[in-house]
Amino acid sequence: MAALTVWSPDTVKDVAESLGVTNLNDDVAKALAMDVEYRIHEVVQEALKFMRHAKRTTMTTQDINHALRVLNVEPLYGYSSSRPLKFKEAAYGSGQLYYLDDEEVEFEKVMNMPLPKVPRDVSLKAHWLAIEGVQPAIPQNPTPSDSGKSLTGPPTNGASRNQALPTDTTTKPLVKHVISRELSLYFERATEALTNPTDPAARSAAISSLQNDPGLHQLIPYFTSFIAEKITHGLKDLLTLEMMLHTAHALLRNPNLYIDPYITNLMPSILTCLVGNKLGPTSVEEAAATGREQYGVRDLAASIIHYIINRFADAYHSMKTRIAKTLLRVFMDPQKTLGAQYGAIAGLSGMGTNVLRLLLLPNFKIYELVLRRAMDEGKTYEVEKCLDALMAAIRTLDNDEIAAEVVNVGELDEEKVRTVLSKKLGDMVTERIMREKNERVIKFLYSWVPEKEEEKKGKA
Fold this sequence. Notes:
two-stranded antiparallel ribbon; about 55% helix
């Protein structure tokens, strides 16, 4: 009976005899030969898949190894794709025998060979490929003279890498962000209206347009740059600062714009208006003459900060923490002006009860020293504004969350309360708190224990 497989049963018998199995039945040898052929076909079919996925037309030993792993078979060791396998033919009786020509290597020669160089550690360095469509001139980026050189690899004809390449290649010019003529005209008219100090109607119309019009997404980077430039160069002009804050607020409130990626560009400008050291006129008399004060601008910036935190805190998880740290640093810096500290207090007061408990309230007593020193210097008006900001922060404690905490606090003696609050918050703030007579807030502050004192009690 002829064999049903191209894999010879005699080969199976030879392998069996090499393993010590003699007198193997012919039917068993034929069955094993058919199974071997089936397994080989299965491995080759899987290897073909890897070859095609790699966009190659030649199967490699790596493809076979991948196929064996897929079939849960241990791969073959000692074969690699770095060099092709060369089989040699040898006569063996009446047939032919093929074997691999392995080069013989002397062990002593290998031992005496010099060691290879130690490879360098892998390192990564970031740099800008392009900024707003323009490639910066830094060593990591190709120069214009290199733009015509081929990057496809070395020449295939054996020529040197440094050999001159054909110069008939063309390089496309750098592309900048281009907007339509209509949007360009809209941006020009809007910025002109926003910076016009004599036409309040035009300013209001521009703000309304920015807050409601669709189709302005391409102009967002231009408006953020415009806001940053005007605030940077117009810190003494309160009207300009106020209009830039209204512009930023209008863009943030426009429901048709995806403003999330530009929040990080707007925040420095808004924080500058909130805690800038010097905004507007340098004296109260000049501010009275212009009819504007820096405190109105700082209040507006604080309200925008609170809006951004409430709306975008989920997208920027660390934003609230970073802003709170920045404001606390300004609040606790005695070198900052009272106006900057007023902005820090206004910003922190709207960030929630926990921020007041952990950051503002524990520092009231220390901050009173700054206010008393400013009072001695004749800065009565600025001190009063800062005290007003502190009281505004304290009034935010009058909420349902605090009400649940003071349910069990009974009647309090006024003199005892005054003494306790003075130790915690200072005399100046305590006097105003007692004057307002907000029972819920007074009970909370009376029962409130700073975090440091809680830790001391826990250790004791």
